[in-house]
């Protein structure tokens, strides 16, 4: 099996527009005509989230119309904290489950836009706008659904620096050009914004017999990025090092398709990719979480390394410090000046966490290895 190596991942979609069109048409056909409800999926890609769903999110989900939830094809829970009043974009919003759940969580002053290329999915999503507006007690809708490609948000009319948060649930793997998707997401995000998304990743680059298999692609396995390629692509596009939130291994669960998959492994992982101003200083610091975010009154789970308990002083590395100081979280923390630099050097590169290892730890109930993740001079992150 080919391991991911820096700079060797060539996406043929860049060279071949007809390949891109074919994939778009195949995926539209899959989600528009072949699959009508969650139970029609042929594999386990649409897995339950790795961790229990908090009560306030369960409540928001319970308010979503069953015709919408029947067509849910996601692979994770895409609910970042601190959502009230935010402008959110959902890439590949499907029938709209996550859009409506977030519509309630951002509140009447916030807004959620869903983008999807498949007419049949959009039709279901749009049909229930009025229903949810009334259910949530809003005076006017705070959602809209746009038909378009996630590789072409500009053509879909989405302006640069216009969203606080982008979410996506099991969609980026379906794109023939992941680089363009990330570039477009970066463009439309405001400074300090983040792409918070769940997707399927492989342990290695996949061979052509898997990537050219139409059902495996439609089921979110064939187009899965090797997780190390996601880390590299995100940084190339300009995001901070991806922060891994959670991960869960995914089995295919279909004998015929498993024969094609062979020994390749897959994980459903949730990452957060922050767009931070270029001049943001990278310096470790001590901080305390103030406990004012709805749903995170006792502790704020930032990623698999950092959970901030209310009023507890924590020293964070330079990367996390600049993310928190430059994002919507800045007002939620008290930052202490002049922290001594601890063992976690400010300039050190943050080693990406292997989601397959995290998935094992989560499964066995282990707490993921403590804060940190700074590579010393001898350690390689590549
Ligand atoms: C696996 S489903 C997930 C839908 C939704 N996020 C959910 O959780 O139910 C994938 C969705 O992404 C859409 N999609 C896939 N590739 C796309 C692309 N390149 N541009 C726009 N939409 C896309 C499909 O039409 C489909 O609705």
Automatic annotation (TrEMBL):
Belongs to the methyltransferase superfamily. Arsenite methyltransferase family. It comes from Conger conger. This is Arsenite methyltransferase. One of its GO terms (biological process) is toxin metabolic process. SUPFAM superfamilies: S-adenosyl-L-methionine-dependent methyltransferases. CDD domains: AdoMet_MTases. It catalyses: arsenic triglutathione + 3 [thioredoxin]-dithiol + 3 S-adenosyl-L-methionine = trimethylarsine + 3 [thioredoxin]-disulfide + 3 glutathione + 3 S-adenosyl-L-homocysteine + 3 H(+); arsenic triglutathione + [thioredoxin]-dithiol + S-adenosyl-L-methionine + 2 H2O = methylarsonous acid + [thioredoxin]-disulfide + 3 glutathione + S-adenosyl-L-homocysteine + H(+); arsenic triglutathione + 2 [thioredoxin]-dithiol + 2 S-adenosyl-L-methionine + H2O = dimethylarsinous acid + 2 [thioredoxin]-disulfide + 3 glutathione + 2 S-adenosyl-L-homocysteine + 2 H(+). Residues 84-237 form the Methyltransferase domain. It holds the Pfam family Methyltransf_31.
